[in-house]
Amino acid sequence: MYLSMQKNFRAFTVLAFIVTFTMFLFGFTLRDPSLYFFKYAIRKSDIFFSNGQCGCQQCMTELEDDPWFTERFNLSVHPLLSRRNSLLTNDTYRWWQRLQDHKDPANFSEVVEKLFQVIPDNDNLYKDAGPERCRTCAVVGNSGNLKGSRYGPLIDSSDVIIRMNMAPTSGFEEDVGSRTTHHVMYPESAVDLENTTILLLIPFKTLDLQWITSALTTGSIKETYIPVRSRIKANKNRVLIYNPAFFKYVYDTWLENHGRYPSTGFLSLLFAMHICDKVSVYGFGADRYGNWHHYWDNNYHGGEFRKTGVHDGDHENNVTLLLADKHKIDIFRGF
Ligand SMILES: *[C@@H]1O[C@H](CO)[C@@H](O)[C@H](O)[C@H]1NC(C)=O
Ligand SMILES: *[C@@H]1O[C@H](CO)[C@@H](O)[C@H](O)[C@H]1NC(C)=O
Ligand SMILES: *[C@@H]1O[C@H](CO)[C@@H](O)[C@H](O)[C@H]1NC(C)=O
Ligand SMILES: *[C@@H]1O[C@H](CO)[C@@H](O)[C@H](O)[C@H]1NC(C)=O
Ligand SMILES: *[C@@H]1O[C@H](CO)[C@@H](O)[C@H](O)[C@H]1NC(C)=O
């Protein structure tokens, strides 16, 4: 801690000296617009102020951290499923199977094996945290509060941009941006993707893992508890699976078992917190009139989203606000 502060202080001193010296040399005053370059450069070069945990000014894991956060944030639970971590504990497996109570699930380990014959099994993805990395992430929810926000360029400037379920960008670029690096979905909410976008599947049952395998190959699975897309357009080299063990960790540790299970938005937020150094949240919650609806439609759902009986939106909202309070995430509230 002391050493890294000293290093930062030294870097800052050197920078301050350069700026002062340049000002002196060219007789600039602080009001001179050309100095905005320096201000901008200082702000952009977060590295000078980094605390050593990551390359950003503020990192997800700080050296002197908040006890509430450190008690919960567990980097050893990996958000993605791989062959290696697919041996779920009995507890996790049983909890996960009960989420949607599907009868007679297929043999999990056989399903996982078939799945990873179709999609890549990369156990090292995103495990690259370190003092050089400053990965900025935007988690973009679907709230109507994005309408008129003009957040598009800000969202698009992030390294990772996570969208979910039916979220369109076409026609809404000014407010929601146009880039999508990760699209989170489950069979019942699936959409076609660009070749470069990563599909992040949240499985709620064994059948969902069979569905993604099928939807990328034979198209034989056509329904779950409702009819679903039998095929989707997506790059099968860019498919990731949300780890059921991580799912349970989010529910137990972050939601303290409120609601039946976490919402897609909350699961995406925790995913981002585990793979990013800096997380910004857009399009969460109601609009400024207290209405709950999607940014792409005008169907007001009158609180239906908040209290579906499945998710505890109030509690998720409380935890999200607490994370912002503790400067772990930035919330962009929209309009
Ligand atoms: C973090 O997760 C790992 C793996 O699930 C577990 O063994 C460990 O006890 C957890 N640590 C804390 C502090 O909860
Ligand atoms: C997990 O469940 C299996 C089958 O139900 C059982 O054979 C095994 O002993 C259980 N393991 C533990 C650690 O409880
Ligand atoms: C699932 O399949 C594996 C591999 O074929 C087998 O070893 C295991 O016993 C099966 N589990 C159950 C519960 O049938
Ligand atoms: C999509 O990307 C893959 C590489 O990840 C490439 O092999 C394939 O040709 C691309 N498909 C299209 C339609 O661009
Ligand atoms: C959320 O926070 C509010 C205000 O602190 C509190 O009244 C409410 O009980 C909390 N709700 C849940 C579900 O924790």
Automatic annotation (TrEMBL):
Q: What class does this enzyme belong to in the EC scheme?
A: transferase
> Reaction catalysed?
a globoside GalGb4Cer + CMP-N-acetyl-beta-neuraminate = a globoside MSGG + CMP + H(+); a beta-D-galactosyl-(1->3)-N-acetyl-alpha-D-galactosaminyl derivative + CMP-N-acetyl-beta-neuraminate = an N-acetyl-alpha-neuraminyl-(2->3)-beta-D-galactosyl-(1->3)-N-acetyl-alpha-D-galactosaminyl derivative + CMP + H(+); a ganglioside GA1 + CMP-N-acetyl-beta-neuraminate = a ganglioside GM1b + CMP + H(+); a ganglioside GM1 (d18:1(4E)) + CMP-N-acetyl-beta-neuraminate = a ganglioside GD1a (d18:1(4E)) + CMP + H(+)
Q: Which GO cellular component terms are attached?
A: extracellular region; Golgi cisterna membrane
Q: Where in the cell is it found?
A: Golgi apparatus, Golgi stack membrane; Secreted
Q: In which pathway does it act?
A: Glycolipid biosynthesis; Protein modification; protein glycosylation
**Where along the chain is substrate bound?**
Q100, N142, N165, Y225, Y261, G265, G285, H294, H311
An example GO BP is:
lipid metabolic process
Tell me the InterPro entries matching this sequence.
Answer: Beta-gal_alpha2-3_sialyltrans, Glyco_trans_29, GT29-like_sf, Sialyl_trans
Q: Does the keyword Manganese apply?
A: no
Q: Name one GO molecular function term.
A: beta-galactoside (CMP) alpha-2,3-sialyltransferase activity
Q: Which UniProt keywords apply?
A: Disulfide bond, Glycoprotein, Glycosyltransferase, Golgi apparatus, Lipid metabolism, Membrane, Secreted, Signal-anchor, Transferase, Transmembrane, Transmembrane helix
Topology relative to the lipid bilayer, per the entry, is: Single-pass type II membrane protein
EC number in record:
2.4.3.2, 2.4.3.4
Q: Which Pfam families match?
A: Glyco_transf_29
- List the disulfide bonds in this chain: C137-C276
What assembly does the database describe for this protein?
Answer: Homodimer; disulfide-linked. Homodimer formation occurs in the endoplasmic reticulum.
Homology family: Belongs to the glycosyltransferase 29 family.
Protein's name according to its UniProt entry:
CMP-N-acetylneuraminate-beta-galactosamide-alpha-2,3-sialyltransferase 1
- Provenance organism: Oncorhynchus mykiss
The primary gene name is LOC110488197
